[in-house]
Write a structure and sequence with these properties.
The protein is of the alpha+beta class and 214 residues long. Helix content is 51%, strand content 8%. It has helices at 17-27, 46-49, 70-80, 95-117, 133-145, 157-171, 179-189, 192-213; strands spanning 7-11, 31-35, 59-62, 65-68. Strands 2-1-3-4 form a four-stranded mixed sheet, covered by helices on one side. A hairpin with a 2-residue loop joins strand 3 and strand 4 (65-68). The model has no long low-confidence stretch (mean pLDDT 96). It binds glutathione (GSH).
Length: 214
């Protein structure tokens, strides 16, 4: 293991980067945090915009290459540590559905979520990337009902992405607290690593808030 093998995670607590950190821990990956105080607007300063022009976290740097976008990072990291058993191999029949549901997160779920959160009138079903909100969520509900995990009996990196997402979207009241979603999210949020990162996030977020008051 060289220094170059360590992963740098551009991070802010209680954000979409939290799921990436949980995944890194579940994979047993060597990583360092590059923390941005988003309350102080550090993500919009030139230094970070030179790394990610969108000013968003998560982003990771590994062996000199930069990866942004949660779903790309999720696939990349799980493939990097196959020994952790969180990614179906390329010839595993679950590989296609695994990629499907990870892509679904960014391509269908998030656009629907933001439309719903902003109370915007969605595009007509034939032009909307996610058809309509109820259909988009209904497809997920049907898949999760086959459980316990998205792809059946074994947890994958996709479940970390989705479990953390259901947790925060239900907390914000954007996704309804249906039993199937609640039980699914709890499978991830009850894990010691999620609990540990949540506690560390609360502490870091409080420090960030305090730093803004001085
Ligand atoms: N498309 C990005 C979105 C990431 C994103 O929205 N991150 C939020 C944190 S939850 C962010 O960095 N917001 C800071 C800002 O826009 O100022 C992804 O999927 O990774």
């Amino acid at each position: 293991m060289t220094d170059d093998d360590r992963i740098t995670l551009f991070y802010s607590p209680q954000s979409r980067a939290t799921g990436t950190r949980v995944l890194l821990e579940e994979l047993g990956a060597p990583y360092d945090l590059h923390v941005l105080n988003m309350k102080a607007g550090e993500q919009r300063k030139p230094a970070y915009l030179a790394i990610n022009p969108l000013g968003k976290v998560p982003a990771i740097r590994h062996r000199g290459a930069l990866v942004t976008e949660q779903v790309a990072i999720c696939i990349y990291l799980a493939d990097l540590f196959p020994q952790a058993g969180l990614t179906p191999s390329i010839d595993d029949p679950r590989r296609g559905p695994y990629l499907r549901w990870i892509a679904y997160y960014a391509a269908s779920f998030e656009p629907a979520l933001i439309d719903r959160f902003m109370q915007r009138t969605p595009a007509p079903v034939t032009q909307s990337p996610y058809a309509d909100y109820d259909t988009m969520l209904g497809a997920l509900e049907a898949q999760l009902s086959t459980g316990p995990y998205l792809l059946g009996e074994r947890m994958t990196a996709a479940d970390i992405l989705w479990g953390v997402a259901f947790h925060w979207t239900m907390t914000f009241g954007i996704v309804p607290r249906k039993d199937v979603f609640t039980r699914y999210a709890e499978r991830i949020t009850s894990r010691p690593i999620f609990q540990k990162i949540t506690a560390a996030d609360a502490e870091m977020a409080a420090q960030h808030a305090a730093a803004c008051q001085t």
